[in-house]
Amino acid sequence: MQPLKFSMLSLAVATALVACDESGNSHSTKTFKSIEFSSTPAPATADAMAKAHTGSVATVTYSDGSTAQYPLTYNKLFGVKDKVGGNAHAAGQLYNYKMEAIKDPMGQPVIAETPDANSLLSVGGNLFLVNHLEYDWLLSDGSTAYSKEGWYTRMPMSMLLTALTQASDGKLSIKSQRPIDFAGVNGLWIPCFGSQTPWNTHLGSEEDYDLQYNPLASNYTTTTAGLKALNEIYYKSEQTANPYHHGIIPEVTVNADGTTKVVKHYAMGRGTWEMSKVMPDGKTAYFGDDGTHGLMALFVADKSGDLSAGTIYAAKWTQTSAEAGGKANLTWVKLGHGTDAEIKALADAASFSSIFDATAPTSGACPTGYKRVRAGSTADECLIVRSGQDQAAAFLETRRYAALKGATTEFTKMEGIAVNAKDKRLYLAMSAIRDSMTDTSGEPANDIKLAKNSAGATYSADLQAGQKDSAGNAINSDYVATNMYVEAALLGEPLSAADALGNTANPEKIANTDNIFFAEKMRTLFIGEDSGMHVNNFVWAYNVDTKKLTRILSAVAGGENTGLQVLEDLNGHAYIMSNSQHHGDWDTGTNAVVDAALAKIDKFDANIGYISGLPAIK
Predict the structure, then answer these.
(1) Half-sphere exposure of residue 156: CA atoms within 13 angstroms, side-chain side
(2) Strands 607-612 and 3-11: what pairing?
(3) Average pLDDT, integer, range 154-181
(4) Is the pTM of this model over 0.90?
(5) Could you tell me what percentage of the chain is helix, strand and coil, using 3-state DSSP and rounding each to the nearest 5?
(6) SS3 state at 221
């Protein structure tokens, strides 16, 4: 796919009014109370459709009842084709394990047009931006990579580190830039969304559905193609890739001098992780498991601030309603305890056949002793965990083991995760409610039985302390999700027929929720779309107190909004960051205005930028 026009919302500083008392000491006379955004109109002209932009105004209300208005404006920081900050290559350049620039069969640089996660971090008084480059599947001439000259459907990927300077008015500028080297952790495969830990590091992802090995299902050829790309492109046929080294959550620590340390947390389990989000306690984490027949996973670290050891659980969905996105109670099945070192050692030697005895069902039934599961694939499997392999199964085949233990593996397209600390509420983006989340006869479990909604929903879950797992043992966390439900404004609305522009979901509602981020002081959930149902995807602001949903950003036509992060007060300025990717990914010939917009778009570029105008939220 191609580039997104990014946006970070740089929210400029709001200076509190100050008065002096009789002793000469200063004190603030008003403080921030609330914020409300006006709506950016859905674009209707080719020019508006072809660019990332905002027309929103933020109205801030202060404690003394006064208000102030702040118009928002888009600013570009850099694009994936730009050479900036002393980087000898384009920002989106991909590299092999020797940090040599990868080139395609025509000798052209392979540049990813798919920026995703952002982490803008302040470390020792310096600002650093960590960016994901999610995937690349096109050659430089725009043809599908795998079909040309025997090339590849996917590429080994990368992260960027950009040092920034911050002016007195909040403007961000590039100081230096370099790629982050992942050779020490066996490379990086499809880093999707990410988050920031309470201890100020970047928590990434590996959405490795290309590497989830399944010899009994039709996606085995995809696995083979992914390994081919890693072996031949990343390792240059000098080393052999292992699928069990991928699908692992990576953590990037950035030091004040710009050096980085990268680890992969094998103790957090293996899946097609969209992202992981650590709760305010510094030890509880939830995951977005993208794909079909996914699980909802919970990780509880042994100690706060350290993700290298802990226990993983998988949710059991017990449905209480099928209406409006559904409602359910959640219980948790313990899968196992492990450390990074233990599970990495298992991964080094593991194979699918060393973990499982597997066969395909016959007429929907398994041989005696086997259990039929559907996990990560539409194909059923009959599995037995081999003797002594339970820990390997739990951490390296987490979905399958969850299904074997009775947890629910029927979630579809689980994307971003966010937390509202004050209300102890978790938010989960389900990009689409379909396939395994519908009432499907013949499934091994069929726990989730909802009406199909292709536009998806953002679910809420209440977090509680004092919970026990399904075996009656205490879960050592105060942030255990006990239910799931959908607030009315956060349910997508498919259209019965496409509108004049080609939208197949209501453009006044969210379609295909993806990246989400909750801003505590603003009391606002920000939501970015990854939709094939809106010609232009949007970023939305949802106030959890007023229940008002507002469109605040429109991406380039066909582009996906990614990389949401909110910094409410960074050195006296606020920033909301939102990237976009695969610009122009929309069919031509359905509407003349849309076609005119698509003709204006550079499909092989993507912008990192920010919207200025908002005050710091103190």
Answers:
(1) 31
(2) parallel
(3) 95
(4) yes
(5) 10, 40, 45
(6) helix
